[in-house]
Write a structure and sequence with these properties.
The structure holds two protein chains of two kinds. Chain A is an alpha/beta fold. The termini of chain A are far apart. Chain A folds into two domains: 6-200 and 227-238, Rossmann fold (3-Layer(aba) Sandwich); 243-362, Rossmann fold (3-Layer(aba) Sandwich). Chain A has twelve helices and 17 strands. Chain B is of the alpha/beta class. Chain B has one domain: Rossmann fold, CATH 3.40.50.970. Helix content of chain B is 35%, strand content 16%. Chain B has nine helices and seven strands. The N and C termini of chain B lie far apart (46 Å). Classes of the chains: A alpha/beta, B alpha/beta. At the A-B interface, β2, α3, α4 and β10 of A face β1, β2, α2 and α4 of B. The structure holds thiamine diphosphate and iron/sulfur cluster. Iron/sulfur cluster (SF4) is lined by residues 23-24, 27, 29, 57, 127, 131, 218-221 of chain B.
Chain lengths: 364, 255
């Protein structure tokens, strides 16, 4: 049975959803703005019979998750930007070894230590692989608590289904916002489909090895990479998710995700109230990017207006999706500064007029 | 009267696969593998074992050991092993690591796993050099030792002094058994096996973290014959790393 409706903070929602999704292992290292998440799990996981470990670093945390995943557990780690940089080594190994895990990044301003304000400057890192080697991780970008709960379940399902690390990409605002949540039915880990690759001791079967090093002279690594690419193509074909709001008759379509999409939606609603035909396209999976869906909307003279809490990262995927089918405008705020809906209204108006006063036109 | 059934007195341990290894002649890794395998067999642990090899010359240990294994990134074996042991406390969890893996890039993972008293057995191969990457200075390289990155020999001032990680670990409350042995003589190997068994027993009994350091020859990178490399351990390496028990709070009677 789904849970009763509860008012919950974003970080607690993610943590609670993970436990209900059958996650029984967490390891992480403190960093603002995501400390509430491990704090919640430090009591909640033991209560559910799971393990919580405060690791000595993010490097260690992600590798503990790797070990837990190798034994078949649904495992989670979370951090914020500087810590996620350290996790890239482990994420690359998880991808290479085809082990499932969920990594939450509550992004903050960067580069370097930056600041702790909400930011979306890790888009490239999240969607382009992040660590070394030819790999991708599915990236889910929730815009509120209810969606956070649902996407946390989805993250664990995708991780298991495709044997891949999956990233939940939020920020301090998504983590702090309090909203009503109804959790999906809890999953008992014992009811999850068995995994035939995990390590649990070789009694009654041949020993198993999980590894990513393929030194063979017969193109073993090449073949492994082709296999990974086939998997990524499958994910790209089957797992794109997005939301369209007021796009059918729109003259201008804002494209934004996560926190930026909440601001953009307020702007769109205000413009609608004034009779301006604005809409919002909100990608939910950042990789795979919902390219075709966005491409379909980019016709008949509609303008596409990308708004990001970064200096311009997702805009590249928008350009790849839309090409020259529509005018693309970009407005990006880096450095952990959060603009108001009024700023975004100014941007959308300016884009409609094409006067270049707020934001700028971008061309492929 | 029928002939008495033949008694097998020596053979390949079940915990070792029947394959040739890539280790150089005279290398300590093959001896250490055999000791680990014999102990697991004798203690009936093979089918419960999950091993974590290092990144180093023993990176392919999963091709040689006949039990479940998962590769860890360089230095992270004890973090990976922690994840395994916490999820499957009934498993027997083993890491096998070189000095670069354990005492340079993985120092933090090593100290903290020991300090948490993780129920893991760690086999630490100290060959005082980076074998796999071609003979560079290791954290354990001794003073005066020539490596490809200390062509004039290691100097404390320029390169730091050799690190005695086993003694450092001994101050961690969670580490209950640490012993240093050698693989360069019959006597040393016998003692090493005893230590490995005891280290494994520590985990079986749930006492805490256990580690056996094995002084191990790397003739290839020392540019010595196997015999010279074994002698070098006696004549040089043991001055920096004296053999013997470093810590034992197990309370076992056999001391
Ligand atoms: C992150 C990372 N850095 C560096 C390396 C290269 N590397 C592989 S093995 C090794 C050191 C091996 O030395 P040691 O741990 O002493 O083991 P040995 O080969 O001597 O048994 C290094 C530096 C790597 N694989 N990964
Ligand atoms: S290089 Fe050294 S450590 Fe590596 S296999 Fe050869 S002798 Fe052994």
């Amino acid at each position: 049975m789904p849970s009763e409706k509860k008012l919950m903070r974003g970080s607690d929602t993610l943590a609670e959803a993970a436990v209900r999704a059958g996650c029984r292992f967490f390891s992480g290292y403190p960093i603002t703005p995501q400390n509430e998440l491990p704090e919640y799990l430090s009591w909640r996981l033991p209560q559910a019979g799971g393990t919580f470990i405060q690791a000595e670093s993010e490097l260690s945390a992600i590798n503990m998750v790797l070990g837990a995943a190798a034994t078949g557990a649904r495992a989670l780690t979370s951090s914020s930007s500087p810590g996620v940089s350290l996790k890239q080594e482990g994420i690359s190994y998880l991808a290479g070894q085809e082990l499932p895990a969920v990594v939450a990044n509550m992004m903050r301003g960067g580069p370097g230590l930056g600041n702790i304000a909400a930011s979306a400057a890790d888009y490239f890192q999240a969607t382009r692989g992040g660590g070394h080697g030819d790999y991708r991780t599915p990236v889910l970008a929730p815009a509120g608590c209810q969606e956070l709960a649902e996407l946390t379940f989805l993250a664990f399902d995708l991780a298991d289904k495709y044997r891949t690390p999956v990233m939940l990409l939020g920020d301090g605002l998504i983590g702090q916002v309090m909203e009503p949540v109804v959790f999906p039915d809890p999953i008992d880990p014992a009811d999850l489909p068995p995994k035939d690759y995990i390590l649990d001791g070789c009694a009654g079967r041949a020993p198993r090895a999980i590894f990513s090093m393929l030194l063979g002279q017969q193109g073993e690594l090449y073949k492994h990479n082709l296999h990974l690419q086939e998997k990524y193509e499958q994910i790209t074909a089957d797992e794109q998710r997005w939301e369209e709001n007021l796009t059918e008759d729109a003259d201008i379509i804002a494209v934004a995700y996560g926190t930026a999409s909440r601001i953009a939606m307020s702007a769109v609603e205000e413009l609608r109230a004034e009779g301006v035909k604005a809409g919002l396209f909100r990608p939910i999976t950042l990789w795979p990017y919902p390219k075709q869906a966005l491409r379909k909307l980019a016709q008949g003279g509609v303008k596409v207006a990308v708004f990001e809490l970064s200096a311009g990262q997702m805009v590249e995927d928008v350009m790849l999706s839309v090409g020259e089918r529509a005018e693309i405008h970009f407005y990006g705020i880096p450095g952990g500064v959060i603009p108001t809906p009024a700023d975004v209204i100014d941007f959308l108006r300016s884009a409609l007029k094409g006067d270049g006063k707020v934001g700028r036109r971008v061309e492929i | 009267m029928s002939a008495p059934a033949a008694e097998k007195i020596f053979g390949r341990p079940e915990s070792l696969k029947d394959v040739a290894t890539h280790y150089c002649p005279g290398c300590g890794h093959s001896v250490a593998h055999r000791l680990v395998a014999e102990c697991l067999d004798e203690m009936g642990l093979r089918e419960k074992t999950i091993g974590v090899p290092p990144v180093g010359c023993a990176v392919l240990a999963y091709n040689y050991f006949n039990f479940d294994m998962v590769e860890a990134p360089h230095g992270r074996a004890l973090a990976v092993a922690t994840g395994i042991k916490r999820v499957r406390p009934d498993s027997f969890v083993l890491t096998y690591q070189g000095d670069g893996d354990l005492a340079a890039i993985g120092t933090a993972e090593t100290i903290h796993a020991a300090n948490r008293g993780e129920l893991i057995s760690c086999i630490f191969i100290n060959n005082a050099i980076y074998g796999m990457t071609g003979g560079q200075m290791a954290p354990t390289t001794i003073i005066g030792e020539v490596t490809t990155t200390t062509p004039g020999g290691r100097e404390a001032k320029a390169h730091g002094s050799p690190i005695d990680i086993s003694r450092m670990l001994a101050v961690c409350e969670g580490a209950v058994y640490i012993e240093r042995c050698t693989l360069n003589s019959f006597k040393g190997i016998k003692q090493a096996k005893k230590a490995i068994r005891k280290c494994f027993q520590v985990q079986v009994d749930g006492l805490g973290f256990g580690l056996v350091e094995l002084l191990s020859p790397c003739p290839t990178n020392m540019k010595m014959s196997p015999k010279q490399a074994w002698q070098w351990i006696d004549n040089q390496m043991m001055k920096t790393y004296p053999l013997g028990l470093i810590k034992d709070t197990t309370g076992y009677e056999d001391k």
